[in-house]
Amino acid sequence: MLFLLLTILLNAYLIVAFKIFERFGVDNLQAIVANYWVCTATGSLFIGRFPVGAQSIHEPWIGWAVLMGTSFISVFNLIGYCTIKEGITITTIANKLSLVIPVAFAVWLFGDVLSFTKLLGIVLAVPAVYLSSRSGRTTRSAHSLWLILLLFVASGLLDTMVNFIALKFFSSGVAEADRLGQSVYLILTFFTAGSIGLLLVLALLLSRRRRFAWRNLLAGLALGVPNYFSIYFLLRLLQTKYLPGSAAIPVNNIGIVLVASLAAVIFFKEKASLQRMLGMLLSIVAILLILFSDLYA
After folding, report:
1. Do the beta carbons of residue 130 and residue 58 sit within 8 Å?
2. For a surface tag, which of 53, 78, 234, 247 has the fewest beta carbons within 10 Å of its beta carbon?
3. Cβ(137)–Cβ(90) under 8 Å?
4. 62, 195, 244, 275 from 56: Cα distances, Å
């Protein structure tokens, strides 16, 4: 339960952080790239060494680490862009309503049981996420709709990948080995994302399309440590099998929407409309249904 709560709180913070960065004129790309180098340093300090080297290419998960690193920086930049252009509300909808994708894969690939109670919770999650994140904006351009759809699909596939990696490579039953393996995997993943991002930022700076500012590095520091542990705790949650992937991912995503929506109301003075309050109530009901379907199966 602790890993679940920590994952929810840290991920909600990451979404809200982009809205704060906008107020201080932070360049999201530079902040995100700096964040991944902070993640790499955080993971290395956490295990007491920097594990990336020539031996890394022989790891069975090396291809997945590179793919996930590329996905991380792509999706994170997309979240930052959508948060600024579309707002916290619609970004949260697109990012977390994608819970249906990892659930479908968990049932199909890993044989997770889809009980009536869990299915009801997932069905309720759709209006819960939508209503909790309800925006006052009613019309959107075709560009906005495609952007939202892209974030929806990309987020769902990334969640599916995290679940797959946790079950395939870090469920040996040897707790210490699994924890070390997860940390090494994450460090290499973040190192990949940071390397790709650094090349992109350098190209933009040299072409004078972007300007460097120290506040971007400070923003990266504010993102990096929470970001590392948000993924680490999610992997730990999936590894402990406290909940199967078809339950853990939906509960995590609904919880993030609930916390982010509360933060939007409390700290950004977004209107606590009847729709949003109903959505929050449905979120709680959906979480309880999904939890009980597995805890008392």
Report:
1. no
2. 53
3. yes
4. 7, 15, 29, 50
CA distance 185 to 169: 10
Packing angle between helix 2-23 and helix 62-96, nearest 10 degrees?
A: 70
For residue 98, which phi and psi values (nearest 5 degrees)? Answer: -70, 0
d(CA 99, CA 156): 6
**pTM of the complete model:** 0.78
Question: Does residue 55 or residue 290 have the better pLDDT?
Answer: 55
More confident residue, 97 or 28: 28
- What is the Cα–Cα distance from 169 to 229, expressed in whole angstroms? 19
Number of Cα atoms under 13 Å in the Cβ half of residue 177: 6
The token duo for 119 is 């299915």
Residue carrying structure tokens 């291809």: 63
Q: What's the confidence (pLDDT) of residue 70?
A: 92
Give the type of residue at 182. Answer: Q
Distance separating alpha carbons of residues 118 and 289, to the nearest angstrom:
6
**What integer pLDDT is reported at residue 133 of this predicted model?**
56
Unique residue bearing structure tokens 């009801």: 120
Q: Which of 234, 192, 232, 224 has its CA nearest to residue 42?
A: 224
Strands (E), 44-175: none
Q: Between the CA of residue 244 and those of 48, 102, 166, 255, what are the distances in Å?
A: 31, 11, 11, 16
The residues near 241 (Cβ < 8 Å, ≥ 6 apart) are 171
Domain locations along the chain: 2-295
Q: How far apart are CA 60 and CA 70, in angstroms?
A: 18
For 56, the token pair is: 């890394």
Average pLDDT value for the chain: 81
State how far the Cα of 174 lies from the Cα of 295, in Å rounded to an integer.
Answer: 23
